[in-house]
TrEMBL record:
Organism: Luteolibacter soli
The entry's keywords: Methyltransferase, Transferase
UniProt protein name: Class I SAM-dependent methyltransferase
Gene3D superfamilies: Vaccinia Virus protein VP39
Alphabetized InterPro entries for the sequence: Methyltransf_25, SAM-dependent_MTases_sf
EC number, UniProt record: 2.1.-.-
Lineage: Bacteria, Pseudomonadati, Verrucomicrobiota, Verrucomicrobiia, Verrucomicrobiales
GO molecular function: methyltransferase activity
Length: 202
């Protein structure tokens, strides 16, 4: 596989827009974290294990809610994301919540290469939900992760199962993959019962 910085740049621009939209309707996130709230799921906490006093690197961290939730468990956290808006938000969230975290804006590929050559090492590298699908070369990404892990360190990755993306909230297929016309491909189904009707009519 080949790393595609051109696609990453498109993703940076679209994540800038998406991040503003996502955060606009989440009120008082700093107050939530300050009050002891966490955005981590119990299984993520379980896989991370005891992070007290550990150096944890969160890759593709978006706006830092999970990163700061890990910091609240006692870890020293570093978050990396390509989106300017996400990193600006994460830095503000850290300041406003009073939870320490370091956030660095970069494409993850050059960041991992430079961090490894600078001798930066982490006890745990974490990435979660909706991260892997943006990576143009998984092998290089995983070698990069290995390059910044301490000996015996842990890589924790929690992801959506790709199969889940096929269905809408009602459990009906979301995309008209079964249609042969090229124009139908990648057209989101706007009416799931119509999709079923078309499907069973074939
Ligand atoms: C769905 S979000 C991940 C959310 C994450 N689970 C969290 O803790 O909130 C995907 C993130 O990946 C980032 N991203 C996509 N491609 C990237 C790249 N090449 N390098 C670094 N970050 C990238 C996006 O900017 C976006 O913030």
């Amino acid at each position: 596989m080949v790393i595609r910085p051109d696609l990453h740049e498109n993703n940076r621009l679209s994540w800038n827009a998406a991040t503003v939209a996502h955060n606009r309707h989440k009120p008082d996130q700093a107050g939530f974290l300050r009050g002891g709230g966490s955005t981590l799921f119990p299984e993520e906490i379980g896989l991370l294990g005891a992070v007290q006093g550990k150096a944890v690197l969160h890759l593709l961290c978006n706006s830092g809610q999970d990163t700061l939730s890990i910091a609240a468990l006692g870890a020293e956290v570093t978050g990396v994301d390509i989106s300017d808006e996400a990193i600006d938000f994460a830095q503000r969230l850290s300041a406003e919540s009073g939870i320490a975290g370091t956030f660095e804006r970069s494409d993850v590929y050059p960041w991992l290469e430079k961090a490894a050559s600078d001798g930066r090492r982490f006890d745990t590298v974490f990435c979660s939900y909706g991260a892997l699908c943006w990576l143009s070369d998984l092998g290089t990404f995983l070698r990069g992760v290995a390059g910044v892990l301490k000996t015996g360190g842990r890589f924790v990755c929690m992801e959506f199962h790709p199969f889940a993306m096929i269905f809408d909230e009602q459990g009906a297929p979301k995309y008209r993959w079964h249609l042969r016309s090229p124009s139908a491909i990648l057209t989101p189904a706007t009416n799931s019962s119509a999709v079923w009707a078309t499907s069973s009519a074939r």
